[in-house]
Write a structure and sequence with these properties.
Helix content: 10-25%
Distance between the termini: 46 Å
Shape: elongated
Radius of gyration: 25 Å
Order of helices and strands: HHEEHEEEHEEEEEHEEEEEEE
Length: about 375
């Protein structure tokens, strides 16, 4: 804030990462003017009205006007306090929504909604678009070879070179069974951006909403548009850590009743994705024992089989407004993790109760 005040006096300025709305609010609070962010003496005391109460509309010569009601009643302190808290929450969630949309690199928009409680944005979550390697882990995101196809549907393309089938049909829907890896065309391929074998790399195409659930499951994600069956929905990204570090963090997360670890066990079990602190929209997708999303391993520029990308595809048609879910115990192989079946006393793990409500619910998340 000192930098803004200094700029207003014409002395000096430094770059600031705070949003414009926040800077304007701080300026008004400190009674500072700054032309570069639109705060002048004329609008210094202007504030956006969040809520009007105890008012009536009366007719005047040039139309209508809003005036206070002719009574001495005031809102109860508890109600007034709630209105203020709700207004502050709306502002905070709007700023968070704006921040998420600035950081994303995909077509689909991100919306945020909370009509349940006063919970605001998470305080220790950072939006990322791709894997973030932990110190000591190297991600080589450069393919060593690519195809020279003019039509990847009919020629020997990247999947064939890897010994698997092309994953998609002409409607951009996945046609291979769970457990089969996806090999998309990469940066060395001669085919263009409209290649039918470039789906996951284009990112989420659907507008999604992070919303507060009403049954104690925290935040969730719902789609705002209809999603066809077998369509790519989103990637699961986070911090890539070693399996040893994942075991240590897992015990801590179990004690807190949260689950964000995803083992990259397509061919080995060396690495895990931790989306607790760094992630994208998938961080907020809830578990279900009867999910509408399926996990697939994907290889694009990084062909290291120890480090597949994790893509979530729809298992059926998902209607607008419907919550998105996947099975937290589902592996890229299509199998259920053994951790969900073998809970011997020797493990001494804290069990997290499942609240998915599915008929086939297993009772626990881990």
């Amino acid at each position: 804030m000192a930098a803004v005040g200094a700029e207003a006096r014409g002395a000096w300025c430094v770059p600031c990462l705070v949003s414009l709305d926040t800077l304007q609010e701080l300026c008004r609070k400190e009674k500072l003017t700054c032309k570069s962010i639109g705060i002048t003496k004329r609008n210094l005391n202007n504030y956006e009205v969040e809520y009007l109460c105890d008012y009536k509309v009366v007719k005047v010569k040039k139309g209508k006007a809003i005036t206070p009601k002719d009574n001495n009643k005031t809102l109860k302190p508890a109600i007034a306090e709630y209105i203020v808290k709700k207004a502050k929450q709306r502002i905070a969630l709007q700023r968070w929504q704006d921040e998420l949309n600035r950081r994303k690199n995909h077509k689909g928009m991100i919306f945020v909604e909370n009509t349940v409680d006063l919970e605001g944005p998470p305080s220790d979550f950072y939006y990322i678009n791709e894997y973030k390697p932990a110190p000591g882990i190297s991600l080589v995101n450069e393919a060593t070879f690519g195809c020279s196809c003019t039509d990847c549907f009919f020629q020997k393309c990247c999947p064939a070179e890897a010994g698997v089938l092309l994953a998609y049909n002409k409607n951009q829907q996945i046609k291979i069974p769970p457990g089969t890896p996806i090999y998309e065309c990469n940066s060395r391929c001669q085919c263009g951006p409209d290649c039918p074998n470039r789906i996951v790399q284009k990112g989420t195409q659907y507008s999604l909403c992070i919303f507060r659930t009403s049954n104690g499951r925290g935040w969730g994600v719902k789609t705002l548009v209809k999603i066809k069956r077998m369509s790519f929905v989103m990637e699961y990204v986070g911090e890539v850590i070693t399996s040893e570090e994942a075991e240590r963090r897992g015990q801590f997360y179990d004690n807190k009743g949260i689950t964000y670890l995803f083992d990259l066990d397509y061919e080995s079990d060396e690495f895990t994705v931790d989306a607790a602190r760094y992630g994208n929209v998938s961080h907020f997708v809830n578990h279900s024992c009867d999910p509408n999303l399926q996990v697939f391993n994907v290889f694009i520029d990084n062909l290291d089989t120890r480090l597949p990308r994790i893509a979530l595809f729809s298992t059926r048609t998902i209607n607008a407004g419907e919550e998105l879910t996947f099975d937290y115990q589902m592996k890229g192989s299509g199998d259920i993790s053994s951790d969900s079946i073998d809970h011997s006393p020797a493990k001494k793990r804290v069990r997290t109760v499942c609240k998915c409500g599915a008929v086939t619910c297993r009772g626990y998340l881990n």
